[in-house]
Design brief:
five-stranded mixed sheet; alpha+beta; four-stranded mixed sheet
Length: about 375
């Protein structure tokens, strides 16, 4: 009996030593798969550029489309043909046929999005990170999940919802990244260089199947503000980033403590181009807090997050993918020091901010 117990104890110790190694190997494989998916997204935008001599807009949809509600489509719709999803792209283009039978509805309404035949409800593996443990069964109006985000830049830009802004409008000029609000920049506009400019990263999705409207985890939710009072933002039409530390201080021990409440809608539909759903900003380092103002111009601090240990994967515009540590230099400033959101020049947010801007005059990459 003693010998048997000793053997069992030894086997138990060996299993205890082996399991972490197995788990680490599995996560390494998932992280590598995530890296490859991000690379494919970046290459898809390059192929799009070859076709149209322009990068896809972060929020607008297919190149040249101008009708109402199509302006909310994300760039993930525009690059579907370059991800071997041409048939799905064609179905999305024909969504007006579906919405026409829904009196007063549009593709964003639950009456449309919940339909199994809705192309916006498709679950596309290319848009999902295997390390995200969120159940893939999403409730009504939370379909078409997406882990990956396009880069809005290093500014908490506001946005118009349905109308088309001009490049210099108040609701577009703050978009300092490679993709903006009806932007369609070409590569000549990427002054900092494609190898120094962020294209995509990732963010964990909240578990919408359990009704997590009160989910307060840092990696999943945003601190939600209905006005600039007590928020990181100031001014109006649009608001602008006034104090980055306010967002950082909204979290204690990985949980939001702000009385402003939380918002967990991000990532629920790959086709939705509203910034808080499919974009990210290079303002606060990876896995840090995010903040959103749900009124006015919908200014947002959208921080990438992941279940990879210590940081996130991020793709640059040249197709390369790098692991960005959550300790990356993000500067010490809390704002650009302007009062109108029309920011220019070198990013005040260190290497991280420099990677987010397309024309800040920096050539810094980790």
């Amino acid at each position: 009996m003693v010998e048997l117990l000793v053997v069992i104890a030894i086997i138990g110790i060996l299993i205890g030593l082996l399991l972490p190694a197995v788990q680490a190997a599995r996560e390494a494989a998932r992280r590598m798969a995530c890296t490859n998916k991000l690379k494919q997204l970046s290459l898809a935008t390059q192929n799009y550029h070859d076709s149209y001599n322009a990068l896809p807009a972060g929020k607008c949809g297919p190149y040249g489309k101008t009708s109402s509600f199509k302006n909310r489509w994300s760039l993930f719709v525009a690059i579907l043909p370059y991800l071997e999803q041409g048939p799905l792209y064609d179905r999305i283009l024909g969504m007006d046929l579906m919405t026409a039978v829904e009196s007063g509805s549009n593709w964003m309404d639950p009456g449309i999005l919940q339909k199994p035949e809705s192309p916006m409800a498709a679950r596309i593996d290319a848009f999902l990170c295997d390390s995200d443990s969120v159940p893939r069964t999403m409730p009504v109006n939370f379909q078409g999940p997406v882990n990956y985000r396009w880069c809005l830049g290093d500014n908490a830009a506001g946005q118009v919802i349905d109308s088309i802004p001009t490049p210099d409008s108040a609701d577009n000029r703050g978009c300092r990244g490679a993709f903006g609000n009806y932007s369609f920049y070409n590569l000549a506009a990427i002054i900092d260089g494609t190898s120094n400019t962020l294209a995509f990263s990732e963010r964990c999705m909240a578990d919408r199947t359990t009704g997590t409207a009160t989910e307060t985890k840092q990696k999943l939710a945003y601190a939600k503000y209905t006005s600039t009072s007590g928020s990181p933002f100031a001014g109006s039409s649009p608001s602008y980033l006034s104090n980055r530390s306010t967002c950082i201080n909204a979290v204690t021990n990985g949980l939001y403590t702000t009385s402003a409440g939380v918002h967990t809608g991000g990532g629920y539909c790959f086709g939705h181009g509203l910034f808080y759903i499919t974009a990210f900003t290079a303002i606060i380092p990876p896995n840090g807090p995010s903040c959103i103002m749900t009124s006015g111009s919908w200014n947002t601090i959208l921080t990438p997050s992941s279940y990879h240990q210590g940081g996130v994967n991020a793709a640059l515009l040249d197709g390369s993918v790098r692991f960005i540590s959550e300790t990356i230099d993000a500067g010490t400033a809390n704002s650009f020091g302007t009062t109108d959101g029309n920011v220019k020049g070198i990013s005040p947010f260190g290497v991280w901010g420099a990677m987010g801007s397309r024309d800040g005059g920096e050539s810094t990459a980790p």
